[in-house]
From TrEMBL:
<dbReference type="GO" id="GO:0016757">
    <property type="term" value="F:glycosyltransferase activity"/>
</dbReference>
<feature type="domain" description="Glycosyltransferase subfamily 4-like N-terminal">
    <location>
        <begin position="35"/>
        <end position="206"/>
    </location>
</feature>
<dbReference type="Pfam" id="PF13439">
    <property type="entry name" value="Glyco_transf_4"/>
</dbReference>
<keyword id="KW-0808">Transferase</keyword>
<keyword id="KW-0328">Glycosyltransferase</keyword>
<protein>
    <submittedName>
        <fullName>Glycosyltransferase family 4 protein</fullName>
        <ecNumber>2.4.-.-</ecNumber>
    </submittedName>
</protein>
<dbReference type="InterPro" id="IPR028098">
    <property type="entry name" value="Glyco_trans_4-like_N"/>
</dbReference>
<dbReference type="InterPro" id="IPR050194">
    <property type="entry name" value="Glycosyltransferase_grp1"/>
</dbReference>
<dbReference type="Pfam" id="PF13692">
    <property type="entry name" value="Glyco_trans_1_4"/>
</dbReference>
């Protein structure tokens, strides 16, 4: 807005102050073209920070050659690649190796304003140590419930030590971002400090019901009026896929032509194929191809209880799928049962199966719920998420500045 002042005929532009560009170091042990929720959401945040005029330095393990070949073009940010080791059971994923000395040298030469650590593995721990050695402010993400995986991988005795490590890690940071209010409350009760809720967005232009393909559904053996249920994600024990199979079996009794589609890969694929030989295994998908697979589903079944968020929930909602899930993570935060999805109480497997069967029998209710899901997902804009992320970084930077006083201790005017 422009205002003209009479004095000296000066024209004054009342423009907002230019955005303060920051030098940001982002450390993550997973990033595209790896396919998982952490990689995808970190890529969206990094892209958003770059668009907001920040100088982003991305530190991550070097990926396998066959994955690197899938990348197109030159990255839009400054990438620093470190050594990595394959993750057990997931050979396409890498975890970083201890790199404190290299990071201290790197950040001594090009000092960032703040270090953000997305993962708590060896590379993340090295980054935390290096940042503290250089007195740099540090923020982190709590993205994976490692402690909740114990019962699935026979690590029950290690659950407490793992939680102790995670608490020690995050409490050394100036702020830790969590994706839901429920997770903030849970972690606070377990002794985690300085928690800020920063949710996840979804690309509602890519994940769109308009991508539904009759040809794709035909390739699955489904006609226009046949019910197609599906799951997207890792085929792994912690995803509680036995409940998905139980729901499918219950639906098949009343809808013999119903189909089940698994999108993704993982160590349980052979077991699932043996237990559900008529299911479709589409493998790992990405980009517009993944979006088309979502759009081809009528019911999205998500039975995981180990998520901190679960990006697949919002992708399915944006794609116009009716979602059946447990009241946990993103589903618990975003879904009102019977309005924009269906929720069973956490761990109430019989209720999950019953809700799936009810939804399978009521096409009109599925359409209404799917429309509500799409409306909800369209509100989850990545630009708003990036702005919130940025504000947490700015808070950490401000608290690290000499002479900073908390609001309650500011001197009287």
């Amino acid at each position: 807005m422009k205002t003209a002042h009479d004095t000296d005929d000066i024209l004054v532009d009342d423009l907002p102050a230019p955005r303060h560009s920051r030098r940001l170091a982002v450390v993550t042990e997973t990033y595209p073209p790896e396919v998982n929720g952490v990689a995808m959401s970190m890529a969206r945040v990094v892209d958003g920070l770059n668009r907001r005029n920040h100088d982003v330095q991305l530190i991550r393990p070097r990926q396998p050659a066959k994955l690197t070949a899938q990348s197109s073009g030159k990255p839009a940010v400054d990438e620093v690649l470190t050594k990595g080791l394959p993750v057990p059971l997931y050979p396409n994923l890498r975890m970083g190796v201890p790199s404190k000395r290299a990071l201290v040298k790197l950040w001594s030469l090009k000092r960032p304003d703040v270090v953000h650590i997305a993962t708590e593995g060896p590379l993340g721990w090295s980054a935390l140590q290096a940042a503290q050695h250089l007195s740099l402010p540090v923020t982190s993400d709590y993205r994976t419930n490692f402690h909740a995986y114990g019962k699935h991988y026979r690590l029950g005795l290690l659950s407490k030590p793992i939680m102790g490590y995670l608490r020690k890690f995050h409490n050394r940071c100036d702020a830790t971002m969590v994706p839901t209010e429920a997770m903030r409350v849970l972690l606070a009760e377990r002794g985690f400090e300085r928690l800020s809720v920063v949710g996840r967005g979804v690309d509602a232009q890519r994940f769109d019901p308009a991508r539904r393909s009759a040809l794709m559904r035909e390739s699955w053996g489904a006609g226009p009026d046949d019910l197609v249920m599906g799951y997207v994600g890792r085929l792994a024990p912690e995803k509680n896929l036995g409940v998905v199979l139980a729901a499918y079996e219950a639906v098949k009794i009343v809808q013999p032509r119903a189909r089940l589609v698994f999108v993704g890969d993982g160590p349980m694929r052979a077991e699932l194929a043996a237990r559900a030989p008529d299911a479709v295994f589409a493998g790992q998908r990405s980009g517009d191809d993944l979006a088309a697979h979502y759009a081809g589903l009528d019911l999205f079944l998500f039975a995981s209880l180990t998520e901190t968020f679960g990006n697949v929930t919002t992708e399915a909602m944006a794609s116009g799928c009716a979602v059946v899930a447990f009241e946990s993570a993103a589903a618990g935060e975003l879904i009102r049962s019977g309005v924009n999805g269906w929720l069973a109480g956490p761990g109430r497997e019989a209720d999950f199966v019953a809700l799936t069967r009810t939804a399978a029998l009521d096409a009109a209710a599925r359409r209404t719920v799917a429309e509500g899901a799409r409306v909800t997902a369209r509100r989850l804009d990545w630009g708003d998420i990036t702005a919130r992320f940025e504000s947490v970084l700015e808070g950490a930077i401000a608290r690290a500045e000499p002479g900073f006083l908390p609001a309650g201790l500011q001197p009287a005017a």
